[in-house]
Amino acid sequence: RKEVEQDPGPFNVPEGATVAFNCTYSNSASQSFFWYRQDCRKEPKLLMSVYSSGNEDGRFTAQLNRASQYISLLIRDSKLSDSATYLCVVNRNAGNMLTFGGGTRLMVKP
Amino acid sequence: GAVVSQHPSWVICKSGTSVKIECRSLDFQATTMFWYRQFPKQSLMLMATSNEGSKATYEQGVEKDKFLINHASLTLSTLTVTSAHPEDSSFYICSAPLLGLTYEQYFGPGTRLTVT
Fold first, then answer.
1. What is the reported pLDDT for A48?
2. Under a CB-based contact definition with an 8 Å cutoff, are residues B39 and B112 in contact?
3. Strand B111-115 relative to strand B10-13, pairing
4. Cβ–Cβ of A42/B109 closer than 8 Å?
5. Percent of chain A scored above 90 by pLDDT?
6. What are the residues facing A17 on neighbouring strands?
7. N or C, which end of chain B has less CB nearby within 10 Å?
């Protein structure tokens, strides 16, 4: 079983749609969780950290369920510029090492 | 914000040659840096942890004699791919955590290596 699993997609959605991505992680000792965005041939960029209480940043909402070891990202009112690969990232144990999920590809179409 | 640079951004080399990639933290010190490799349509895989002043820690399956890592200073880590082969062609990315900020890391722009 992979440490961090994501549906690879692609998710093809029209502009304005709401789309949700899910992620599961296997290491119950993980303490920090993130969503990164990666554009083609570019480095990953931090989209948002994920907190137990859930957090929102504009059109993006992240949720964490520690009991189920499940993380989600909701994007509302999708824009063309949201097209990218979204990476679910979990820290490894209590250190600084990150484990990346395989990524979920999103394509927003006009 | 914090910036990490990599050089070169892309490189083409012949089989059997060695290639050095530099990773620099531009406005902060990094006692630890991480090196990742990403093959097409795959996610980032951690190769090794670069530690300033000590040996790098390699992930299982990564050959330390092939991928030489030197953390020369608090702002520079280098990855040398020795005797490169076409299967080493990949996107190599480094990252560095900000001291004092738990788990937040900044990524370099990556180096695309093509071995012919």
1. 92
2. no
3. parallel
4. yes
5. 75
6. none
7. N
Q: What three-state secondary structure class fits B31?
A: coil
Per-residue tokens: A39? 């554009």
Q: How far is B43 from chain A (nearest CA, A)?
A: 5
User: How far, in Å, CA of A72 to CA of A20, rounded?
Assistant: 7
- The count of CB pairs under 8 A between chains A and B is 46
pLDDT, tens only, B51-79: 888 899 999 999 999 999 999 899 999 99
Q: Indicate yes or no: CB of A43 within 8 angstroms of CB of B107.
A: yes
Determine which of A6, A21, A33, A97 to mutate to test the interface with B (most B C-beta atoms within 10 Å): A97
Say which of B49, B93, B112 has its CB closest to residue A97.
B49
Q: Which whole-number Å values give the CA distances from B55 to A22, A107, B35, B71, in the listed order?
A: 37, 42, 14, 8
